[in-house]
UniProtKB/TrEMBL annotation:
Known catalytic reactions: a myo-inositol phosphate + H2O = myo-inositol + phosphate
UniProt keyword list: Hydrolase, Magnesium, Metal-binding
Protein name: Inositol-1-monophosphatase
Domain of life: Bacteria
Length: 267
């Protein structure tokens, strides 16, 4: 049986190798491969190539594990473990030359649903910034050699992150939530990579984060980072098409969750 720390080391290695490839491809120029749900929802050739690199390495080194990535087909495994991968989280930033994008690699145990699985290890690598965030369950969260801890910030002073989905028909609801949240926040950031937002919550750079409609690959690694840094992550409306993910230190999380649940009921 492989130790969680070995899986963590593999996740970190995969994220770093993939990030270096993404960076190299960026320097060579970005080619758009396709648009997905809307014109804003894009995939580049690099997204696919980076995910293939991770997938091929896992096929060789962990053939019994399942795989769930953003760009390729999912594959069930036999080990009870699944790799959940976003090859480039923040593809719009990547295509536009904005440095906040990342590779997110997580390994989870259990059912293929974020409510039912347990994170085992995760890594988020932001290659332009050369920052590698890692977490192993029960072992803490780290930025390189620095152990991470969420802030104890009170909600009134909270610096929060958020993001918006690609479907314009959902923006009214998103903006209603933002208006409400701004009554308790110091300020708001929209970084463009949910994996980086969650890493920043773990690192205490942001006090909290919320976004509706994220996919599992956007948050699987980041959620473990936050939890291992002493924070709380939960989802609201999990039966709806666009559940709301909320993360933060315990007090910020609790306040945000209550506020957002109340806003959702009114809209
Ligand atoms: C996106 C980023 C963005 C978030 C979007 C995600 P992608 O992921 O995480 O910050 O606001 O909801 O879809 O598409 O670049 O992998």
């Amino acid at each position: 049986m492989v130790a969680d720390t070995d899986l963590g080391a593999l996740a970190a290695d995969l994220a770093r190798e993939a990030g270096v490839l993404a960076l190299r491809r960026r320097a060579e120029g970005v080619s758009l491969a396709a648009t997905k749900s809307t014109v804003a929802d894009i995939v580049t050739e690099a997204d696919r190539e980076v995910e293939s690199l991770i997938r091929e390495r896992l096929r060789r080194e962990r053939p019994e594990d399942g795989f769930l990535g953003e760009e390729l087909d999912a594959a069930a495994g036999t080990s009870g473990l699944t790799w959940v991968v976003d090859p480039i989280d923040g593809t719009v930033n990547y295509a536009s030359g904005i440095p906040t994008y990342s590779v997110s690699v997580a390994i989870v145990e259990g059912e293929p649903s974020p409510e039912a699985w347990r994170g085992v290890a995760g890594a988020v690598y932001a290659p332009v910034l050369d920052e590698l965030f890692t977490a192993v369950r029960g072992e803490g969260a780290w930025l390189g050699a620095e152990r991470l801890a969420v802030t104890e910030e009170t909600p009134a002073g909270a610096l929060l992150g958020t993001g918006f989905g690609y479907d314009p028909s959902t923006h009214d609801g998103d903006l209603a939530t933002v208006r409400r949240v701004m009554t308790i926040a110091r300020d708001l950031r929209r970084m463009g990579s949910a994996a980086i937002d969650l890493s920043y919550v773990a690192a205490g750079r942001l006090d909290g984060f919320f976004e509706r409609g994220l996919n599992a690959w956007d948050f699987a690694a980041g959620a473990l980072l936050v939890e291992e840094a002493g924070g709380v992550v939960s989802r609201l409306d999990t039966a709806a098409p666009r559940p709301m993910l909320i993360a933060g230190g315990p007090r910020v999380h609790e306040r945000l969750r209550a506020l957002i649940a109340d806003t959702t009921e009114r809209t």
